[in-house]
Amino acid sequence: MRWGVGCFAGFQLSCERPGPGWSDMNDNDAAERRGMVQSPSEKLPGAIPPDNIELPALKSPPVRMDRDRRLLNVLVARGVLSQDEMEAAYEAVQAQGVDLESLLLDTYHVAKSDFGAALSEYFSCPFLAYDERAVLEVALLKNLRIEYLRKSAWIPIKRQGTVVEILRTDPQDLDKDPDIRRTFPRLTIRVVVGLRCDLDKWLLLATEQSARGAIADILGELVHEVWNEADGSVQQITEHDSAIVRLANQLIAEADRLGASDIHIEPYSTGRDTTVRFRVDGTCFPYMKIPSGYRRAVVSRIKIMANLDIAERRKPQDGKIRYRLAKDRDLELRVATLPTAGENEDVTLRLLTAKTPMPLEAMEFMPGVLETVKELVERPQGI
C-alpha cells in the first residue's frame, strides 16, 4: 500500500498477517531498535507487521524547497506576505538553509495562526494550535518514548471510538506512516498539522499529565480503603498516605491547567462530602467532591505543604507553598485556613504563577512598531 503526498482527513488501517516466510526480525523488533517502544516486554499488543509496505526514499532537498515555495505562495495569496517578502524569504531558505517556520515566525513576525492556516491549506488537513489547557489521553503514549516522538515529530492527541487523532509537523513525511500504523493497529488515523516550535510544548504537556495521574483513579483508591469514623478507632488514611499526597498535588496542577486563581476546600460535618471549588475568571464553580472520611487528611496535607501547624484547628493560619509544576516552572500559592463548625477548617489557596516576563519580540509587534517602542523605553527621561 502506497500513500500519496497529500494529507487525508482519515484513512482506515488494514494489516495483513505475514506468510510463513516472514523472518524472525519483524517490524516490531525494528521499531524497538529505533527506540519507539520501551522494551520487549512492552511491545504493543496486536501489532501485525504488514508485508506489502514499501518505504519511500528520504525526502530530497529539492522536494523540501518546492514545499517551502508553495507554502510561501499560500501566504502571499492570503495577504500575509508581500511578493518581495516572499522572494527574500525563499532566497534566505535557499541560500542559507534556514528553517522556513523559524524564519517566518521570528524574522517576519508572521502570526502562528496565519502560518497554521497556510499549513492547513497546503497539507489539506486541520491545523491544531497548542493549548496548555488541552487534556491529552496519556494512555495513547503508554508504549512510546518521548525521545522517539520528538525525533519523529508526531504525537497522539486523543481517541474517539476507533479514530485516533495524530498531530504531525509534516504530514507528507511518509517514513513515519508505518510506525504510526503499527502503533495503532486496526484504527482510523485522523491527521492534524502543528508547528514544530509547539511540538516540545505538546510533549511536555503529555509528560506532566502522565506524571500527575487522574483524580478519578486516586479517588478510586480511596473509596476502597476501610475508614471507621463512627467509633474513632484506627484511621487508615492520614495526610501522609500516598493517595492523599497525589490528590493534593493533582488539585494544584489541575487548577493551574484550568487557569484558576483560587482553590476553595470546604469540609462539612460527618456524612457530607467535602467540596472543592475553583475560581476561574472571577466565577467560582464546584470542581469535585471528596468523600467525607478524607476531609481532615486533605486539609492536613495542604497545611503540611504550607508549613502550618496541623494540630491547631481553633485559630486561623496563613502560609505559602512553593510548588514545582515542571522542570523550569514553579508555582507559588498563598494558603489561608479558617476554623468552622465541627472542628473542621476551610482552606483557600491563591495561585500566583511565577512566570518570566514576556520579551517584546514575543508580542508580535510589527517591525517598525517594535523599533519605536524600544527607542521610547530607552530614553533616559522616560516616555
Question: What is the secondary structure topology, with strand pairs?
Answer:
Layout: E1 11-12, H1 27-33, H2 61-77, H3 83-96, H4 100-107, H5 112-123, H6 146-152, E2 154-160, E3 163-168, H7 177-183, E4 188-193, H8 196-212, H9 215-223, H10 242-257, E5 262-266, E6 274-280, E7 283-290, H11 295-305, E8 317-326, E9 329-340, E10 344-354, H12 367-377
Parallel strand pairs: 3-4
Antiparallel strand pairs: 1-4, 2-3, 5-6, 5-10, 6-7, 8-9, 9-10
Helix pairs in contact: 2-3, 2-5, 9-10, 10-11
Q: Find the structural class using helix and strand composition.
A: alpha+beta
Low-confidence stretches: 1-30, 37-60, 226-235
Number of helices: 12
The strand count comes to 10
Helix share of residues? 25-40%
SSE order: EHHHHHHEEHEHHHEEEHEEEH
**Widest sheet, order of strands:** 7-6-5-10-9-8
Report the sheet with the most strands, covering strand number, pairing sense and barrel closure. Answer: 6 strands, antiparallel
Straight-line distance between termini: 65 Å
Structure write-up:
- With 383 residues, the protein is an alpha+beta fold.
- Helices cover 36% and strands 19% of the residues.
- The protein folds into 2 domains: 1-212, no CATH class; 213-354, Beta-Lactamase (2-Layer Sandwich), CATH 3.30.450.
- It has a 6-stranded antiparallel β-sheet with strand order 7-6-5-10-9-8, covered by helices on one side. Strands 1-4-3-2 form a 4-stranded mixed β-sheet.
- α2 crosses α5 and α9 (215-223) runs antiparallel to α10 (242-257).
- It starts with 10 loop residues before the first strand and ends in a 6-residue tail after the last helix.
